[in-house]
Structures are given as structure tokens and as C-alpha cells.
Write a structure and sequence with these properties.
The chain has helices spanning 14-21, 28-35, 38-47, 98-110, 125-135, 163-178, 208-220, 222-225, 230-237, 245-252, 298-301; strands at residues 3-10, 51-56, 71-74, 78-79, 94-95, 116-118, 148-153, 185-191, 258-271, 305-317. The protein has 318 residues and is α/β, with parallel strands linked by helices.
């Protein structure tokens, strides 16, 4: 039977993708971030998963205010990289696993989780950046190491799902995977976060104490996290901190007891030339001016301040 062998948590900072695409990874600022993921990439190479389920959020690439599914499962054979304003990222088309995805959809829906089934969808930095961080750089005409099943979660428009609902969906996904007859090693990613806010008076917010407490409980006491209400995420982790509920889908898919294999946490603060604090945390989700010119380097130059947390952990089943 198929089995989930590990869970992975990772931020999906779009500027990381821009740095990778533009050859900036050896610059002092970026090198410390990419170096933090080297152990995770080594672990992934050793694990050799057959399939990855990646829980992420779309950034108005496939969905919009006209169509907002709470949970959308990608069942297609492939998922092209989306054009987010500068052309698609120079990464390979993501190969899907329609058979396992369709099995998960059937099992989870019959378990009373109302998924939206997507037989055609593009994927943006919310998914491809974590893939780069865990699988490394893959050239556009290359091939990702394993097929991927995307699970898009609405954490952009109110109301997002609760942490408890996400955790229980993870439980249902685990049950579905375990009932699949083929012998597959599956890893599941929870992406997004951690604490951050990209606009308003608190733009650039970082709450390291909150983040580290969340990470400690993620492996040791996830039931404490599933009770956190939306307002606490907003107050303590910023308006976009709600992305952290996606990590609870990943955690719900694992055993009750897990071993934390690796953790890398850093506060990333970048001040670009001519920047001001009032432009805090503009990190390409709402590019302005020259960023629409089609030149990828603009994604780096146009950031005034980028404040995000980078974290990666592998949670291995005991």
C-alpha cells in the first residue's frame, strides 16, 4: 500500500524564486538562506519519494475573487507554471499523479470533505518555490524528481478554513493514501508563513516568539495549534500569518508522534536601494511599476523591504 513517510514545512517567499532564477544564490544575503536548505535537499535525495502532496495557496493565478474554493485538489496529468506578471518561472512543468489524486478525492469526499476537483490548473510560486527549496534548482527543460499532487487552500479571502478543519483534512488524506494499493512512498508539504504582513501599518511584522512556539508545538503538541482561532493568527502573526493553517494539513497526515529531523529558521530582512520603511514587505505579490515590464530582475530591485521567515523541517514518522 502507499504510505506517507514524512512531512515538510517551508515558506514560499516569491523573492527566493527570483533570486534562484536570476543567479543570486551565492550573494551574501541569499547564500545564508539557500545554505539552510542544503541538508533538507540531501534528506530528500536520500528519501527518494515517489509522490509529493504539496499544500499551498494560489496567489490569483488560477483562482480569483470570482471563484474561491476552500480546498482544491489537482487531479491533472500536469500543471504548468503560471505567469505571475513577468512570464512563467523558468522551471519544468509539474507532473501530476492523476491515479492517486483521484483516489484521494474519492476517499476524502466520501469522508465528508467537500473538495473542488481541478483537472486543469496552473501553479505559482506558492508551490514552485518550496519545490526548488527541497528539490534544488531544476532547469526549465528538465524534470522534477517526482510527480506532485497540488492541494490549494484558500487563505487569501475571508473566511479561510480553521486550523482544526485543516488538521482533520490531513487525517482524511492520510487514510486515503494508506488505502491506495500501489507501493508508494509519499511526502506531504505544508507551505506558506510563517508570521508576516505585507501591507498596512504593521507591514513587515515578524513575531519570532510566536513562530518558534508554533514550530515546537507542530511536532510535540499539534492539538494545541488546532484550537488557535483566526483572530489570534491575525493579531500575533500578521494578516498573512493565517497561511500557517496549511501546515496543519501536513501535520494531520502524520502519526501522532513524530521525530523532527531538521529545523532551519531565520528572519530575512532585505533593504533595497532607495527603500523606506513605509514600503515594508513588498515581496512581489502586488508588484508595482517596472515589475510589470517583463524583466525578471525587477522582482529583486522593486522590493523595498522584504521581511519573511524561512523555516524548513522534516517530520518523520516514528
Amino acid at each position: 500500500m502507499a504510505r506517507i513517510v514524512a512531512g515538510i514545512g517551508s515558506s514560499h517567499v516569491p523573492a527566493i524564486g527570483a533570486a534562484l532564477d536570476n543567479g543570486k544564490t551565492e550573494e551574501p544575503y541569499w547564500k545564508r538562506i539557500f545554505s539552510g536548505f542544503e541538508k533538507s535537499q540531501e534528506w530528500m535525495r536520500d528519501t527518494k519519494p515517489d509522490v509529493a502532496i504539496i499544500v499551498y495557496n494560489d496567489h490569483a493565478s488560477t483562482f480569483s475573487v470570482e471563484m474561491i474554493p476552500t480546498f482544491a485538489l489537482g487531479c491533472a496529468a500536469e500543471f504548468p507554471p503560471a505567469d505571475e506578471g513577468w512570464g512563467p518561472r523558468p522551471v519544468p512543468v509539474v507532473q501530476g499523479h492523476p491515479a492517486l489524486a483521484s483516489h484521494i478525492a474519492q476517499s476524502v469526499i466520501l469522508d465528508e470533505f467537500d473538495l473542488t476537483i481541478c483537472n486543469k490548473m496552473e501553479v505559482d510560486h506558492g508551490m514552485t518555490v518550496p519545490m526548488n527549496l527541497l528539490f534544488g534548482k531544476v532547469e526549465k527543460h528538465g524534470r522534477w524528481p517526482c510527480p506532485v499532487i497540488p492541494l490549494a487552500v484558500n487563505v487569501v479571502m475571508y473566511p479561510p478554513p480553521t486550523g482544526h478543519r485543516c488538521f482533520m483534512l490531513g487525517r482524511a488524506i492520510r487514510k486515503a493514501v494508506q488505502s491506495y494499493p500501489d507501493d508508494l512512498k509519499v511526502v506531504i508539504f505544508g507551505t506558506g508563513g510563517l508570521s508576516h504582513q505585507i501591507s498596512g501599518p504593521r507591514a513587515g511584522l515578524i513575531n519570532s516568539k510566536w513562530d518558534k512556539n508554533f514550530l515546537d508545538n507542530l511536532s510535540g503538541n499539534p492539538q494545541k495549534l488546532v484550537r488557535i482561532p483566526h483572530i489570534d493568527y491575525m493579531r500575533e502573526a500578521g494578516a498573512e500569518g493565517i497561511e500557517m493553517v496549511m501546515w496543519l494539513i501536513m501535520r494531520g497526515a502524520l502519526d501522532e508522534k513524530v521525530d523532527e529531523v531538521y529545523r532551519f529558521y531565520t528572519n530575512a530582512l532585505r533593504r533595497e536601494r532607495g527603500s523606506s520603511a513605509s514600503a515594508a514587505d513588498r515581496h512581489c505579490e502586488e508588484p508595482t511599476g517596472p515589475a510589470r515590464s517583463g524583466r525578471p530582475d525587477d522582482r529583486l530591485r522593486d522590493e523595498a523591504i522584504q521581511s519573511r521567515r524561512i523555516w524548513i523541517a522534516s517530520l518523520r514518522l516514528q
